[in-house]
Amino acid sequence: VGGFYDVLDLQGQANRCRARGRFKKEIGDIMVGDRVEFEVPAGEDGIIERILPRKTLLKRPPVANIDQVIIVCSPQNPALSLQLIDRLLLLAESKMLEVVICMNKADLSTGTEEQLLHDVYGQAGYQLFSASASCGQGIEELRAILTDRISVLAGPSGVGKSSLLSLVQPGLALQTGEVSPKIGRGRHTTRHVQLFPLDGGGLVADTPGFSQLDLTGVKSENIPDYFPEFDAFAGQCRFKGCRHIKEPDCAVKSAVLSGHISATRHKSYLLFMDEVAAQERSY
Ligand SMILES: Nc1nc2c(ncn2[C@@H]2O[C@H](COP(=O)(O)OP(=O)(O)O)[C@@H](O)[C@H]2O)c(=O)[nH]1
Ligand SMILES: [Mg+2]
Ligand SMILES: [Zn+2]
């Protein structure tokens, strides 16, 4: 913010730093989440000397080195959208991030939504758990999932991401609302991304992940790979390079018919293939 970077050292202390002048030209912008080498001359602001190679990189929100995305959804208010979950999963898979799905607001579920999520995403091999920020359910589990990892919470507004985080670590929400003396206004009013250190180890981004949900940058030829449950069948399709759309003797479509792959997942797959193919045609 304002040309300054708060760099956490190995002891977990924040160090106010500037970037070396030559920096931007040489290696581009420093991003939230970057691992850097820096020096702090006595009594002065620190200087970032070098950005270490990035493991992962997200554009929106702009964060480097994220390990995992926690996709948060709710059964009601807002209503469950499997297509939205599939879109977030696709984006996470395309960035090679690990994913955990959390259904918050379990107190509003009749049980059918939980069963549906279990049937669709459990079958696809995703880790899944229920929580309720209102009842304090699932908080220990979320805390354990976040420990020692760098995470973002993704999901539509209103599903309870902030509520969950402030239960994982009381005071976190307060921090986000705190007025920064250097900036002179509430941090929550600024648009910058911030990673918060968790007491148990690990960092979590204060903004929802993937604020932009378009699939720009995703290639249609790679989409089959982003549906991990297709793997076990794709090798048995008659055609090598089968896209599992209209091809004859497609083992993936057979698996959908026999219930080994969820029909809603395949429906989302077809939708994303269409969407991305249309984008590719317009180039
Ligand atoms: N019934 C119920 N309401 C919740 C739960 N978690 C959060 N809420 C409410 O949902 C609304 C949105 O929560 P918030 O944490 O701001 O969602 P965010 O936009 O995803 O960060 C607030 O009014 C919360 O009180 C929950 O587990 N059950
Ligand atoms: Mg929020
Ligand atoms: Zn096929």
Proportion of residues in helical segments: 25-40%
Please tally the β strands and state the result.
12
H and E string: EEHEEEEEHEHEHEHHEEHHH
Tally of individual helices:
9
Structure description:
There is one protein chain. Helix content is 29%, strand content 18%. The chain is of the alpha/beta class. The chain has a six-stranded mixed β-sheet, sandwiched between helices. Helix 2 (82-94) links the parallel strand 7 (68-73) and strand 8 (98-103). Helix 2 crosses helix 9. Residues 174-190 have low confidence and may be disordered. Guanosine-5'-diphosphate binds at residues 104-105, 107-108, 132-134, 157-163.
Summary keywords:
18% strand; binds zinc ion; binds magnesium ion; binds guanosine-5'-diphosphate; six-stranded mixed beta sheet; 29% helix; 12 strands; alpha/beta; four-stranded mixed beta sheet; 283 residues; globular
